[in-house]
């Protein structure tokens, strides 16, 4: 278990290292002159020079890269060009919105998907199964931002139950904050839940045709107990894979959903930074999101080993 | 091996598969609409006619007009073309790069496999949206941007499917027999492996097609996708959002169009999977 | 009174009859052997007895456990009966165990389900049961996972699970088919000992007549869902009346006609292997560990003469398949030297390599996996002719394919069909045709009949013997099944742990095995005639003992 973790950790740092190179090359090397990109074509030569000086663009590429990475490792993400505050502060502030949003969405989608998927598998081929599968088919096809717009129309504009967007800040009370996150979380969670439920169902159906399920039944265990004790746990192995991949979609989803609801989150920060050509914020913001995705993949890998003893090498 | 099923020809089964049929209908609807838009739309959409704005459905404008007076149906048709072209090219990119990479990983094993799989992990760490944001920083927003961003994300998906399919074949004796016949690895891959994983790839392609349509809509909603005057469903939704309180129908049609096309291609993929599933085929043996 | 009985039991699946009016019964402590080929319905009988029939099954007739009717019993009743009164041992010990649960959890599960006891108490009993099935006593066994055990140990765990609640009736469905012969003998002995000591009734299902003849008090022979003949073991085999059972017995000890083409012991060997070593790197357990190597084949030397048929026997993991792959040129030797037709296949020019590859072809075990499902038979059989590309015309190619098909008893029309249109035995014929198409001097046959039913197996052995004489082709015949090797080879090589432990003429090795391992192998191999003889002696002994008293 330990050495499995170490190996995985090594892979994780390698991926992050490679990702940092990609981000750096795309944003700092390929554009030629980042200062020109940030200021636009009409910029004066002396303002350009000043910005280059401020960003340290006159240093060799390698030095700039090393400085950037070392800075991030120490929590220094540079100074945002548009907001003129440390990017680390911006990220911390925005993460306080995005992370709870992603977490609520993930919990919500799992909480919806697991029981539904298990039920569908249990009543495979029956009307209930057909109904659930039809619904999930539509759920998958639902673009989350359109679903979000519909939710806003129904619950905010028509029924006036919930805010249509914006975020009051956690200092205005946890409940007010949560209230602002409910609709975005649902919009994110439901399409994800549809996918997850389908994966759960098919994984469980596969597992239930295994020989050891028959063995369990031969011991006298009832169909229901067998499903829970031997089926669900083993079905979790493929489900976890998808759950890990889904986090990547979830991150993508937050970027859009935060825009629909005008939430001051990480995704919106990066999105606005790109329209304002604030490359410094984009660079570090993207890196943070990538790190988040990679970290979740790592956690999923560990969960894998916890579920499947065959992955724990040695003893 | 006991077999209890009578052999049925795949085409006959196709007509019995409900999801295949529904999927085929929905997907054809979108494909045909997009295709017609190449030659003809009910109205031109590149000129704004504010006097004509926000009309309800009529014989003139079947689905009404938007806040700039453009015909909604025409916009939807062109939007269908946009999203299908973007998604198709993105699938093409995924197939073109992903399949050879996956096959390479499966046949070479060792370091090559490790390198391919780690590259996969790396790309998976960049959701299409992040790639699109990076590419926008480089090239500015546009259809090409969307195509590249979605296409890059498709590469590891196809690499994974191709590798998995090839690995599941790797123990088969017919590959050994081919090697004993003096055939090279490349020839065996082309003659035996690729045809045998083609089903998997076709099914995955339809799924990626629908994911591509979703992703294109998301990108163009954010303004990172195809730019005006080209119509796209995502941007129609973005523009409709400001009018939600007065003209909610503007947000309804493009959303429905997305749902119909994604649902169509997903069902088509599911149906194809059922029809082409080697396990089902084996049972028919 | 019978502990268990089935009367006029019929089972259909989606309207297709699988069992037709099957009746049998078991007295206390009795072993009933149920034999038949694949598709005879023997496994379905077991599933019916457990009432674990697949979806879409309908049943008719009566099954009784003691006085209780089982057909139509409620799920709740059956949940009490299964595992507690009737238990089952399955064929595949790897897949029959849940890979994510510990041995202790899986064995104690039935105890906790059927009896009111604490987990602690259940684990104590589990420990006792594990010792009962001969698993070594150590404190960690309960915490191990199935993948950490060997195949034989896993099957012991499966048996422990079945007997944990002390059922009165045990069903064993091909309990040793997936195991090596020496392990098979141990597991069968264990089953017999448990059943005898605890006065359990055992329904033993097997395709292997020898196993059943050795174990069972009474035997029932099944074909196409019906019991065609049954009776006390000794008597049944002495007076077989049904043509199918006679044919089955004949096929199971079938010996093809002896060779007509004499061997020339002084000829230059076709294949010579000298000091062959093949090692594989093992996966590292941790990043810091030095890489370990597994030696699959360890300094092996052997020779095959023209036209000679050489058997290679050994249990799984002994290195016989690795040796075959190396001889075929699919893997390079780590050390040592191979010479085929006087040349080293790993050091020849491209042109010579093609000629060498034409001279050595292979037939594999799995009749399903050895063909590309998308290629026609013509394309499949023609594949090795790739070695003759640019040398022969398309017409000549077709001629060779047709000739090869006819040589194995298939029709030229079959060339346009696909593999799935053929049965297992016919597929093995196609595989042989593919191996013959380049007119090779040597065919490496890796377990070519292991996946086939006995009657089909006899036909394929006849075909191989016929080709040996007609075409003068030599065989390297690899098998775990001693009776098959005995039937078809001139000389035999016994491998164990990557090394050759014994080598000699087939007759000599089987009659008078020298090496202890060979002796153990020969003794463990089930043999119908030997076990019938043993049984006969025991019967006479019992009779005289009775007369004396």
Q: Top keywords for this entry?
A:
heterotrimer, A: 315 residues, mainly alpha, MetI-like fold, 2 domains, B: 285 residues, 11 helices, 72% helix, elongated, disordered C terminus
Kindly describe this structure:
The complex is a heterotrimer of chains A (315), B (285) and C (549). Chain A is an all-alpha fold and 315 residues long. Helices cover 77% and strands 0% of the residues of chain A. Chain A folds into 2 domains: 2-73, no CATH class; 94-309, Orthogonal Bundle (MetI-like fold). Chain A contains 12 helices and no strands. Chain A starts with a helix and ends in an 8-residue tail after the last helix. Chain B is 72% helix and 0% strand. In chain B, helix 2 crosses helix 3 (72-108) and helix 2 (18-36) crosses helix 10. The longest helix of chain B is centred in the N-terminal third of the chain and has 37 residues, at 72-108. Mean pLDDT of chain B is 82; it is low at 1-8 and 278-285. Chain C has 2 domains: 4-252, Rossmann fold (3-Layer(aba) Sandwich), CATH 3.40.50.300; 271-512, Rossmann fold. In chain C, 38% of the residues lie in helices and 24% in strands. Chain C has helices at residues 42-50, 75-81, 93-96, 103-114, 119-132, 151-163, 181-197, 209-215, 233-238, 243-252, 320-327, 350-359, 377-382, 394-407, 424-436, 454-471, 482-488, 506-511, 516-524, 528-548, and strands spanning 2-13, 16-27, 31-35, 57-65, 68-69, 86-89, 169-173, 201-206, 218-223, 226-232, 271-281, 293-304, 309-313, 335-340, 360-363, 442-446, 474-479, 491-496, 499-505. Chain C has a 6-stranded mixed β-sheet, sandwiched between helices. In chain C, strands 15-16-17-13-18-19 form a 6-stranded mixed β-sheet, with helices on both faces. Chain C has a 4-stranded antiparallel β-sheet with strand order 2-1-4-5, covered by helices on one side. The interface between A and B is large, with 48 and 41 residues.
């Amino acid at each position: 278990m330990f050495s499995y973790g170490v190996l995985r950790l090594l892979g994780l740092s390698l991926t992050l290292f490679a990702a940092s190179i990609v981000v750096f090359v795309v944003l700092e090397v390929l554009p030629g002159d980042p200062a020109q990109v940030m200021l636009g074509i009409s910029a004066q030569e002396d303002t350009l020079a000043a910005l280059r000086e401020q960003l340290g663009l006159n240093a060799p590429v390698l030095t700039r890269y090393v400085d950037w990475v070392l800075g991030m490792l120490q929590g220094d993400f540079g100074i945002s060009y548009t907001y003129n505050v440390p990017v680390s502060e911006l990220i911390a502030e925005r993460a306080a919105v995005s992370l709870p949003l992603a977490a609520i969405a993930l919990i919500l989608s799992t909480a919806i998907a697991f029981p539904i998927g298990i039920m569908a598998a249990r009543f495979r081929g029956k009307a209930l199964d057909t109904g659930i599968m039809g619904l999930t088919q539509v759920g998958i096809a639902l673009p989350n931002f359109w679903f979000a717009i519909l939710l806003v129309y129904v619950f905010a504009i028509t029924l006036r139950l919930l805010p249509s967007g914006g975020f009051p800040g956690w200092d205005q009370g946890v409940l007010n904050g949560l209230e602002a996150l409910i609709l975005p979380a649902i919009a994110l969670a439901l399409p994800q839940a549809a996918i997850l439920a389908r994966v759960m169902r098919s994984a469980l159906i596969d597992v239930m045709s295994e020989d050891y399920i028959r063995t369990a039944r031969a011991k006298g265990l009832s169909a229901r107990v067998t499903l829970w004790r031997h089926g669900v746990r083993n079905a979790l192995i493929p489900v976890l894979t998808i759950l890990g991949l889904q986090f990547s979609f979830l991150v993508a989803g937050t970027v859009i959903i935060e825009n629909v609801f005008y939430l001051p989150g990480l995704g919106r920060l990066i999105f606005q930074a790109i329209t304002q050509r604030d490359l410094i914020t984009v660079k570090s913001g993207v890196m943070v999101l990538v790190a988040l995705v990679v970290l979740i993949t790592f956690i999923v890998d560990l969960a894998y080993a916890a579920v499947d003893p065959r992955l724990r090498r040695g003893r | 091996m006991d077999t209890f099923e009578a052999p049925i020809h795949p085409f006959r089964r196709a007509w019995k598969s409900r999801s295949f049929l529904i999927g085929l209908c929905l997907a054809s609807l979108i494909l045909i609409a997009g295709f017609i838009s190449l030659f003809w739309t009910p109205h031109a959409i590149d000129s704004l006619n504010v006097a004509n704005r926000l009309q309800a459905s009529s014989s003139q404008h079947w689905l009404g007009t938007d806040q700039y007076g453009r015909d909604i149906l025409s916009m939807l048709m062109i939007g269908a073309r946009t999203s299908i072209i973007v998604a198709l090219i993105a699938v093409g990119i995924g197939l073109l790069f992903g399949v050879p990479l996956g096959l390479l990983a499966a046949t070479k094993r060792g370091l090559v496999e490790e390198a391919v799989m780690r590259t996969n992990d790396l790309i998976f760490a960049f959701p299409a949206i992040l790639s699109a944001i990076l590419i926008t920083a480089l090239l500015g927003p546009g259809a090409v941007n969307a195509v590249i961003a979605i296409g890059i994300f498709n590469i590891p998906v196809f690499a994974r499917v191709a590798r998995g399919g090839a690995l599941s074949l790797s123990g088969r004796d017919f590959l050994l027999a081919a090697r004993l016949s003096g055939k090279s690895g490349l020839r065996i891959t082309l003659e035996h492996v690729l045809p045998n994983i083609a089903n998997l790839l076709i099914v995955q392609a339809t799924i990626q097609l629908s994911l591509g349509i979703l992703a294109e809509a998301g990108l163009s909603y954010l303004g990172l996708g195809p730019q005006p005057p080209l119509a796209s469903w995502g941007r129609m939704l973005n523009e409709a959002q400001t009018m939600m309180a007065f003209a909610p129908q503007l947000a309804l049609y493009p959303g429905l169009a997305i749902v119909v096309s994604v649902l169509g291609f997903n069902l088509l993929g599911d149906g194809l999977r059922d029809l082409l599933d080697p396990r089902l085929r084996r049972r028919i043996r | 009174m019978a502990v268990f009985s089935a009367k006029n039991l019929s089972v259909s699946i989606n309207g297709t009859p699988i069992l037709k009016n099957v009746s049998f019964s078991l007295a206390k402590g009795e072993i009933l052997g149920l034999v038949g080929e694949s598709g005879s319905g023997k496994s379905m009988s077991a599933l019916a007895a457990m009432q674990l029939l697949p979806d879409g099954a309908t049943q008719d007739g009566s099954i009784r456990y003691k006085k209780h009717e089982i057909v139509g019993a409620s799920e709740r009743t059956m949940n009490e009966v299964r595992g507690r009164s009737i238990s089952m041992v399955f064929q595949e010990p790897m897949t029959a165990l849940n890979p994510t649960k510990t041995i202790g959890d899986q064995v104690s599960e039935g105890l906790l389900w059927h009896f009111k006891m604490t987990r602690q108490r259940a684990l104590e009993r589990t420990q006792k049961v594990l010792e009962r099935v001969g698993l070594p006593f150590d404190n960690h066994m309960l915490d191990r996972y199935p993948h950490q055990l060997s195949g034989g140990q896993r099957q012991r765990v499966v048996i422990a699970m079945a007997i944990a609640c002390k059922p009165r009736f045990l069903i064993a469905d091909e309990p040793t088919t997936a195991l090596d012969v020496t392990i098979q003998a141990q597991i069968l002995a264990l089953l017999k000992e448990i059943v005898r000591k605890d006065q359990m009734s055992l329904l033993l299902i097997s395709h292997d007549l020898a196993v059943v003849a050795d174990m069972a008090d009474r035997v029932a022979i099944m074909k196409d869902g019906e019991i065609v003949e049954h009776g006390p073991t000794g008597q049944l085999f002495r007076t077989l009346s049904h043509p199918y059972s006679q044919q089955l017995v004949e096929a199971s000890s079938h010996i093809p006609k002896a060779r007509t083409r004499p061997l020339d012991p002084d000829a230059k060997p076709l294949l010579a292997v000298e000091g062959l070593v093949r090692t594989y790197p093992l996966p590292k357990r941790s990043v810091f560990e030095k890489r370990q190597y597994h030696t699959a084949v360890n300094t092996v030397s052997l020779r095959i003469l023209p036209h000679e048929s050489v058997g290679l026997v050994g249990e799984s993991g002994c290195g016989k398949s690795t040796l075959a792959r190396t001889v075929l040129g699919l893997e390079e030797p780590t050390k040592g030297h191979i010479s085929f037709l006087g040349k080293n296949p790993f050091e020849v020019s491209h042109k010579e390599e093609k000629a060498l590859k034409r001279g050595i072809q292979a037939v594999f075990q799995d009749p399903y996996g050895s063909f590309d499902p998308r290629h026609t038979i013509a394309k499949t059989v023609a594949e090795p002719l790739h070695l003759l590309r640019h040398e022969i015309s398309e017409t000549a190619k077709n001629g060779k394919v047709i000739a090869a098909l006819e040589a194995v008893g298939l029709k030229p029309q079959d060339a346009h069909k696909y593999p799935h249109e053929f049965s297992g035995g016919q597929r093995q014929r196609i595989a042989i045709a593919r191996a013959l198409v380049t007119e090779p001097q040597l065919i490496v046959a890796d377990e070519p009949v292991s996946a086939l039913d006995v009657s089909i197996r006899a036909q394929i052995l006849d075909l191989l013997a016929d080709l040996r004489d007609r075409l003068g082709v030599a065989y390297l015949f690899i098998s775990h099944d001693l009776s098959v090797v005995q039937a078809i080879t001139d000389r035999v090589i016994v491998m164990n742990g990557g090394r050759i432990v014994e080598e000699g003429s087939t007759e000599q090795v089987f009659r008078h095995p020298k090496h202890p391992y060979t002796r153990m192998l020969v003794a463990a191999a089930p043999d119908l005639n030997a076990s019938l003889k043993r049984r006969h002696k025991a019967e006479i002994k019992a009779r005289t003992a009775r007369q004396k008293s």
